[in-house]
Amino acid sequence: MTINRRIIVFGLWLTGAVGCMAVGDNNKYLENGEPRDSLELNTVVVMGKSRVQQLKEGAFSLNAVDIHSQVNSLTTLADAISRTAGINIRTEGGLGSDYSLSVNGMTGNSIRYYVDGVPMTLRGNSVNLSNFPVNTIDHVEIYKGVVPAFLGGDALGGAINIVTRKEHKSFVDASVSVGSFHTYRADVNSQVVLNKKGLLLRPQFTVDYTKNDYKVHGVEVWNAGVGRYDTVSRKRFHDRYFSTQAQVDMGVEHKSWADQFFVGLGYSVSQKQLQTGTVQTIVYGKAERNSDALNVHATYRKRGFLTDKLTTLLSLSHTWDHSVTIDTTFHRYTWDGTSRLATKNETNGRGKQYRHYKRPLTIGRANFCYEFNDQHSLSLNYMYNRTGNKRYDTAEDYCAKEDVDATFTPSDDCIEKQIIGLNYDQSLLDDRLVSAFFVKDYINHVRTEQNDLYWLTHSNDVERSATKTYWGYGMAVRFNVYEWFSPKFSYEHAVRLPQAREQLGNGTTTYANLALRPETSHNMNLGLYGNVKLAQEQSLYYELNGFLRFTQDYIHLRISDSDGTAQYENVNDVDTHGLEGEVRYSYSNWLQVSANACWQDSKDMNKYLDNGNRSATYRNRIPNKPWFFGNAELTLSRHNLLHASDCLRFSYDYQYVHWFYLTWESYGYLPSKARIPTQNMHNASLTYSWKNERYNLTFMCNNLFDATMYDDYKLQKPGRSFTAKFRVYIR
Amino acid sequence: MKTIKYLAAMAAVLTLGAGVTSCSDDDDDNVPAPVANKGDYHFDLLVSVGGTTGMSSTGVTATLVRSVDIDALSNPDTTISMKGIGADITADINSEAIIKGAYYYEASPLKNTWYGKYQVSNTGVNNVTRYEFATNTFLTRQYTHAWTSDNSLVILGANRSVSRKSKYADNTIMWTRLADSENILAIVDEGTLDLTEATKSFREGGVTAFCTSGLATYRKADNTIIYAFTDAGTDAEAGFYIAFIDAKTMEVKHVCRETRVDEMAGTAYGELQQDKMFFDENGDLYIACGTKIPNAEKDAQQYGSLVRVKNGEYTTDQTYLGLGKVDNGKILTAEYIGNGKCALYVTNPVKAGLISDMTVYDNGWGQNAFNSYYYIYDIASDKFTELTYNGETLPASCGSFTDRVAVFNNKAYLGVNPDEAKYGSPRIYVYDVNTGAVSLGARIEGGYYFNRLSVVKNK
Questions:
Q1: Could you read off the pLDDT of A464-483 as tens digits, one per residue?
Q2: 8 Å CB contact of A227 and B186
Q3: Chains A and B: how many Cβ contacts under 8 Å?
Q4: Domains of chain B (ranges, CATH numbers)
Q5: Shortest CA distance to B82 belongs to which of B452, B445, B427, B418?
Q6: Is any Cβ of chain A less than 8 angstroms from the Cβ of B164?
Q7: Are residues B71 and A655 in contact, defined by beta-carbon separation less than 8 angstroms?
């Protein structure tokens, strides 16, 4: 159970003692979507469900994570999301490292990311779950498999919608943190009400810096004295990361012509040194990747647009995204930091590169929702998404002409998507039966120029300009039989168009694959959830969800161990089935215990090889994917410890990932096959807040027992780290 | 490269007292041992998952090695499986490793900077020893090699950035000599070959741009490394060069140029996985070559031929050009099997019925097409005979970067990787060198890319 923070504050103000449970009548909501609270002053029982709980009890299969209530003890948004049921995040290293998120067995890029319903990429390609400012977030919605049409995207495995805080008063929410591995972070999120006419200014600023100089274990360095390799632990020496984001939105709310109208300007910069390739033995010492992005955006929202029953949301944005991959040394590094001359660059074994990627991104979105009555509504969604990909190289300005990668030729590519969705929602039997039906039309236009490395990118095998159309559809239904027993089912025939990064490469170690086809999938979820009131102040929430994914042209990142490069490819047919569950117990407002686990099995269902012969991996489990993992969390809170308005909160969480094989598991002698070991990670945090959470001081320890943690390809992640964070929130 | 060289040395010792003298004193992999104790050896079968090895090996998601007894390949009722048995070498080494004696050798696997020695068995990979490169650093798959004795290995390759277009190239051929004992591998010395100076008599300024690896072998009779290479300059003319190098000093003694063909059959990967040249019993060296088919669309559309360097000579034998015919197809591997014969693996998409004209380029030439056949070539008669079983042509195989031929005790074991829908899973055919008879051998479980077959000494 997650409690809306404002309810708690209100209860505190009333009585000085708070007891709250999510056992309320979920029919009772205010017009603005906030829960209607029912207070009994004697027993102080707050009847109402948080927005997060409401979402969980919707027709769609999703996790809803209340970020606002745990913002003090969060370093990254990815940390919070990775602790939820069925979610596995593969990070390659420390802060700023590349990551891939898996929802119910569907991997990273089949998941789409949104901020308030608008694709997150508008903030720049360098903005992600690791550096998104947590102070600005209210909650996160994680849709599993079946994605509602209102998001307007082409997600296939799921979608993550970050919902930012909406407040109507001036406030400043600022935090600074200092942590291990020379990690420093600062966030400022604020809102200023400029005048009584409701003009709002929302400046945000975030800066992150880290050296990521954590130790990696079991690496080998040459001992020239004795002529052998010694296995040692060494600090990472080329993994510095710097990121800053600034954004200013200005607009008005609650006007006759607009419920909300905002225009904004954002800018982000990211500088990242690269330490390794896709495997631990490939060490870089000079290569880096930098990027900057400038965006302008506007959002308009109006309920009662043209007619009383029509709600309209319009948004338009453009982002000038520019990234540079710098790889201008002919040296090969080892883990002791030394290097020797080489004849090729570090990242992809070619000539020197100072490779620019300009990926201008235009996103337009329109959503029209017509409410026939309280029970029935119809919405039309349209999204336009255009990504350019202009590539050029200026390495000649930095190194000898003969060393420059002469295999490269500049190009200007473009991917254009249009997605039209029609969504019908109904709520029957006094909201006990909720359902949604939707259909989506995907129009994909790809224009490519690039022709270098054609044998890898297949540029000679594809049409230079092609437009294709795909259809998707689905439904979701939830029936609230009892408060403690509510089944829900959802289905979608989903289509996911390849992302620019997948089709056009990442500029360093991931090659383009212009022949990449869209993924399609039949996604099904069947779940049960319920709230059980155990006693006056005790409640239990449970959720059990089974899922099936029948995916064709599954897009999979294939790593080449031999040279550390990668490329996305279609694996013709992959079936995934799994089961996940979550149990959450709360006692009053001082104890919360939760645990979740997920078992999933993804199998290659591709019967034939390229040459027409049968595939040996048919019905084999897809390698490099955890198939059993779980989390457990304990949170203890003590209010009024030293003062009437303070709170001490202790949180402990444990993450488990069962071992899995690095390659296909059916072949070769199993005991000797490379595997990613079982991982156990323990984290703890202690937060002291005073003056009604105006001031908050947190001490965190991640990876308490300094276990060696790995990503899905056995890249090592940070060991034990300590972080101190101070946050101030002034309204 | 096959371990027959090792077998030859072993056999020479074993049969010295018996007066068997069929082996030449040239050091090459391809001179088969007359008799070896089959209990001392086994076959390794290398297969890949996800894609075939070679230039486009990025599709490979796993490489497996299955070791089987010598007799196992002769049994037509056997199907060799990889399920739950065999070594998954993906995280350790590549298929393109030198195989000699009981060991695998490879430069810079997984982009490391060492030269490594490994032992592979059905239970996994044992990392025997490694040695860090000094000045010269060789990359995986991009070098060639010659064993100058059982425990002395010379590797050679171009010190050229792949980024450099040939017109900018200013590279050299670097070499490194490694000493190999039981558990120690060490760099003895290293340097570069002065081939530019040595080729100035053939072209103005000499050759300054070299192919990635070239082909190397060792001629024991005069302690010479014979190194074939091509001019990779944009203004290079057809043909290739052969350098004769003093194996002790690594000085270039002589260079000759062969212009009757376009190039030798391997320029990029040496003989790490595929055999491209061989010595016969006379100590004469034969090099498989390719020449672009007239009017063909791409350089890769070639017909094959063989050139010869006679024992003790420092130039090619201009009186001999084996198989100089357009319709023979492109030679992918050449393996000496004894009795004056060699086994050739040849791509011929017209014969396979995939295209009607060898000058047309389409997927019929591709490595996933079933377009390649085995032939027995008789050197003395220049006769080129297609391998048949019961009077029928063996099924066409796919895989242009494969070598599925191994020779043991006067039998050649040839792996066919056919269209399984028509012919079933891959099959071994056994060719009796003495009688010419072909018999059915074992099958290999289907669904893999069958890339390599080697004889390996038991540890």
A1: 788 989 999 999 899 989 88
A2: yes
A3: 185
A4: 4-457 (2.130.10)
A5: B445
A6: yes
A7: no
